[in-house]
């Protein structure tokens, strides 16, 4: 057997249990076997990438219902190449000049509350195309007059984000946003990399819609772009320019298409049923642990996912929520919980990427860490500011001294 059949052993990698949802920092998703079949079938062969992307367009438009589609390296690169496409159109010379936009409209409007960071800031992905990013409104308020004032000055595109990262109050609904942008003949690019819904933006006539191939779809690292024919063509043609540095391989295209086809025919009820089992187990086991308060929590953006919210009472659990989360992540088998609200003293357990055995390991690890903290008294030592400070410089641990 080849050593590469077990890369964890071969390269000494820690196993990771993912109770956090879809996080690209831990490899995004467990790739579907059908997508692996497609990848294995194409990897040792040559194939015309142009023909492959034309097939991709047929598959995407058939499933999502847009005029056309193509596959990109990831959603972030789809934002960059999609914005570049809105700037250059089908002008092959302009494509080679990007990020220099001379002679072309390059203003791109984005609601201020949508200026998110999904691991990198979205304004940078837009600016990479040579665009001038125009924030619209304020952090928690975007009115029609804010958007219209920006559009009146001219714009190559408008970007709208659907994500748990965006500000949720005071925002323009997608329907209004698309309608107003279209009143000014400005194409709308919708980034909904991590969402289930594929119907609303299509129904509203959005010009370019971006999904991630490696999040809920469980394909290889890839972006799925669906939209109006000429904008999709111009997005694909960016491979002759700025898209070259974010090139997708044949494995990304076939893997994403297989994942999309499987997704379209998928039994979501069966998924929900197995997730419910996971939730029920966590509720039963963890409700017996002193210091934890549990509740069911429905998804922020309406994805059909229920998670367990775990509130940690440090006076009873012997440690803060952020200490618990960090200790779980440092175990030999790393356990990742969803901790983007950790400063509120709570985290979430996501049931989508764990099997029953892993569900049990997560519950046991949580109760072990609480017992250990109570016995040793080594908890409640790091304030949120201490942890925030450590996390701010955490990225520098990569190949660093400590
Ligand atoms: C994850 C995410 C991205 C980045 O997606 P990749 O495919 O990993 O590049 C962009 N936007 C949103 C809203 C996301 O959730």
Structural summary, described in words:
The chain is an alpha/beta fold. It has two domains: 3-23 and 268-396, Aspartate Aminotransferase, domain 1 (Alpha-Beta Complex); 31-264, Type I PLP-dependent aspartate aminotransferase-like (Major domain) (Aspartate Aminotransferase, domain 2), CATH 3.40.640. 41% of the residues lie in helices and 15% in strands. The chain contains 16 helices and twelve strands. It has helices at residues 7-10, 33-42, 49-64, 75-88, 92-97, 122-127, 144-152, 174-183, 200-203, 229-237, 250-264, 268-286, 314-317, 321-329, 356-376, 384-393; strands at 16-19, 68-72, 107-111, 132-136, 157-161, 188-191, 208-212, 223-227, 292-298, 306-312, 334-337, 346-349. Strands 2-8-7-6-5-3-4 form a seven-stranded mixed β-sheet, sandwiched between helices. A three-stranded antiparallel β-sheet has the order 9-10-12. Strand 9 (292-298) and strand 10 (306-312) form a beta hairpin. The longest helix is centred in the C-terminal third of the chain and has 21 residues, at 356-376. The protein is globular, with a radius of gyration of 23 Å. It starts with 6 loop residues before the first helix and ends in a 9-residue tail after the last helix. The site of pyridoxal-5'-phosphate has 12 residues, from helix 4.
């Amino acid at each position: 057997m080849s050593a590469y059949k077990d890369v964890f052993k071969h390269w000494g990698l820690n196993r990771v249990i993912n109770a956090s949802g879809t996080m690209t920092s831990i490899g995004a998703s467990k790739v579907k076997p059908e997508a692996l079949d497609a990848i294995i079938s194409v990897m040792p062969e040559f194939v015309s990438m142009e023909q492959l992307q034309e097939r991709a367009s047929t598959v995407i438009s058939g499933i999502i219902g847009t005029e056309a589609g193509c596959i990109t390296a990831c959603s972030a690169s789809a934002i960059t190449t999609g914005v570049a496409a809105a700037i250059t159109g089908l002008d092959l010379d302009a494509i080679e000049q990007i990020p220099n936009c001379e002679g072309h409209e390059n203003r791109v409007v984005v609601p201020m509350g949508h200026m998110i960071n999904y691991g990198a800031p979205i304004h940078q992905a837009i600016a990479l195309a040579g665009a001038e990013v125009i924030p619209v409104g304020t952090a928690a308020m975007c009115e029609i007059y804010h958007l219209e004032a920006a559009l009146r000055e001219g714009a190559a595109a408008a970007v709208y984000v659907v994500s748990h990262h965006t500000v949720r109050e005071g925002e323009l609904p997608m329907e209004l946003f698309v309608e107003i942008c279209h009143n000014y003949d400005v194409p709308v690019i919708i980034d909904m990399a991590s969402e289930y819904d594929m119907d609303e933006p299509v129904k509203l006539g959005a010009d370019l819609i971006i999904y991630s191939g490696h999040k809920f779809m469980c394909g290889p690292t890839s972006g799925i772009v669906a939209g109006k024919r000429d904008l999709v063509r111009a997005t694909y043609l960016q491979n002759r320019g700025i898209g070259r540095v974010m090139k997708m391989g044949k494995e990304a295209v076939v893997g994403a298409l297989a994942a999309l086809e499987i997704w379209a025919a998928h039994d979501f009820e069966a998924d929900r049923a197995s997730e419910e089992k996971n939730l029920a187990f966590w509720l039963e086991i963890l409700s017996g642990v002193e210091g934890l308060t549990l509740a069911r929590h429905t998804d922020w953006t309406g994805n059909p996912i229920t998670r367990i919210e775990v509130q940690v009472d440090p006076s009873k659990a012997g440690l803060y929520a952020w200490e618990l989360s960090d200790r779980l992540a440092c175990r030999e088998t790393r356990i990742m919980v969803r901790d983007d609200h950790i400063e509120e003293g709570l985290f979430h357990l996501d049931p989508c990427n764990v099997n029953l055995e892993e569900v049990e390991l997560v519950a046991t690890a949580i109760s072990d860490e609480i017992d250990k903290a109570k016995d040793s008294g080594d908890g409640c030592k790091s304030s949120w500011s201490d942890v925030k400070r450590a996390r701010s410089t955490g990225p520098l641990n990569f190949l660093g001294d400590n």
